[in-house]
Task: structure prediction
Amino acid sequence: MLHLIEQIFDTLGSGPFPALAYIALFGIIFAESGLFFGFFLPGDSLLFAVGALAAVTPGKPFEIGLILIGTFISAVLGDNVGYWFGKKTGPRIFSREDSRLFKRQYLISAREFYDKHGGKAVVLARFVPFVRTFAPIVAGAVEMHYRTFVTYNLLGGLLWTAGASLAGYFFGQIPIIKNNFELAVVAIIAVSLLPVVVHRISDQRKERAQREAASK
Result:
C-alpha cells in the first residue's frame, strides 16, 4: 500500500510538473473538508501516509514542512467553502434528496453531532469520518456566527492536519518500524479505514431493509 502511494505521488511529482503531487494532496484535503461529495475521501490515512513518506523518503516528493502548511490551509479553506455553501442553502439543505454524490444521512448525523457539541463540533468533527465533511455545512446552515466558526475552524484544521501528518512522520522514524515499514503502514491505514467500511456496510443494510419494506 505504502509503495503504491509512494509510486503515485512520485509519478505526479516528477517530470515537468513536480507540484502535481502537492496539488493532488491539497486538493483531496480541501474536498474532504467541506465539499459534500468529498465525504468518501481517505483524509486521515492520507495525512498519516504522506507524513510517513516524508520521514522515510524526504523530498521524494514530500517535505514535512510543506505538508503541514499546505494541508492546514487546504483544510481551513475547504471548511470555509462548506460553511458558505450551508449558509447560502439554509435549512432546506436538510431535506435534500440523496444522490450519488450526496448522502442526506451523513448530513443529519452531522446535525445531530452539532446539536450535541455546539460550536466545538467544528473542531471535534475533524476526527470523525463523514461528519468531518458535513459539519461546516451544518454550521453555515444553522447560521453559526462566522467569527466563531473561523476560530473553531482554525483550531480544528491545525489539530487534524498537524496531528495526523506528524503522527505519520514520527512513526516513520522509529527504527523497528523502518525495518517493517510497509507492513506497519498498511496495518495503520487498514485500521483508519475500518470505520468507513463499517459505516458503508451499515448504510447498505439500511437501504436494503428500506427497499424490502417498500416492496411489501
